[in-house]
Amino acid sequence: MDAQSQVVGRLRSVFLTGVTLPEQFRQAQLNKLMALIKENEQRILDALHKDLAKPKFEAVLSEIDIAINELHFAISNLSSWMKPEYVEKNLATKLDECFVRREPLGVVLIIGAWNYPLQLTLNPLIGAIAAGNCAVIKPSEVSPATESLLVELIPKYLSQDCYAVVQGGPEETQALLKNCFDHIFYTGSQKVARVIMQAASVHLTPVTLELGGKSPCMIFGGVNIRAAVHRLAWAKFFNAGQSCVAPDYVLCSPATRDAMLPELKVTLEEFYTKNPQASPDFCRIVSPRHWSRLMELLKRSNGKVIVGGESDEEDKYIAPTVVVDVDEDDALMQEEIFGPILPIVTVDSVEKGIEFLNAREKPLALYVFSDDSSLVNKVLESTSSGGFCSNDGIIHSGLPSFPFGGVGASGLGSYHGRWGFETFSHRKACMLRGWALERLNGLRYPPYQENKLNWLCVCACTCVHVIGSTEM
Known about the structure:
Layout (H helix, E strand, L loop, with lengths): L1 H14 L7 H17 L1 H12 L3 H27 L2 E2 L2 E2 L6 E8 L2 E5 L7 H12 L3 E5 L5 H14 L5 E3 L4 H8 L5 E5 L2 H13 L4 E4 L5 E4 L5 H13 L11 E4 L1 H19 L15 H13 L3 E4 L3 E2 L4 E2 L2 E4 L16 E6 L3 H9 L6 E5 L3 H10 L4 E4 L20 E2 L4 H7 L1 E8 L5 H4 L8 H12 L1 E2 L8
Parallel strand pairs: 4-5, 4-7, 5-6, 7-8, 9-10, 9-16, 10-15, 14-15, 16-17
Antiparallel strand pairs: 1-3, 2-20, 3-19, 8-18, 11-14, 12-13
Helix pairs in contact: 2-4, 3-4, 3-6, 4-5, 5-14, 9-10
């Protein structure tokens, strides 16, 4: 605790010197983070394979390239993000300079996740650096190889005066949370998020919580079954289902289910061969504890396993598994699965499906597969979710111009691109006023009069569109 307090105190002292404020410093740190990734790509791939048996294809696509794209986006746009934003004025402020200034929050804490241990640690850090903050970074100990690599590399590439990495488990995290930060960014489970919110409340620290939940995939109306199953299977079993935006379950009609099942069997064999355990393209469960949790869910389910079901505890392997005859009270429907198990729930109509969704917590993502655009729009307008994508899965989460985040139980706040910069910035309302028109100011001074009030109301409510410079 004392050592961590010293780290936080040291970073706060450095932040107060203003070293992180200039754009040149921020750009330099973002470029150094880019170099960290590019110069150590093979070591990163090795660590990800050691932690999760991630194939190179998935590791590059979902970890390395996403972080690099995020960096390119931030580096290209930082100058415009930092400029003051001039606002509309009323008659009372016509001669004033009125703008919103983005300022860094200060010293922030970033707690990474184990399922994408590079991307989900570095992407929020990119936003924090771009916004001009100092940061304490806590990678997930559940993916120890990547954690150790980040602990080694970040101090080598980034300013040690402004950024510190803390290694350890729950005890170290709890000790960190006793310190006063200016923002806490956490990616992980709802259970831990509640602990973080409680700790943050002591210091009135704002939080961003990137959580998850049971993201559904609705399939209704006419649809290309083969294409739909290929996209669904890829999105679900990518990273062995250990994605916060993975389709958690399918909601469809009995007829659609019956059409899908043969295609699912064929598709999974095409993707991972008849023996997925021997496939180099299929990940492993991150730890024995997570493997046991998934197998317990499968054991308690009353559904029928149609595809997969095989497992190997020593290898932390669970085959791509499809379960049917799953009702809403089934064990697989009580919590986020976060693994390679896909339940299929049937309802009679899209209206019943919407009712089903709206009776539950808001998911991080909602997917609708259908050729009927009016049906897609009906679901879009009738439901609430962190993100929405039609006729594909998880792909929306890689676009840096999109805000990424949940709603309700699936998260609080968002990031990626400009949204990450805004998350780690304070938007200060600034008015620069001179001494002119002091006679008009007499309208607001005592003794108060009714006609003065009337004039002030007119001045305050009448907006004047002012086109001003975007630079100070």
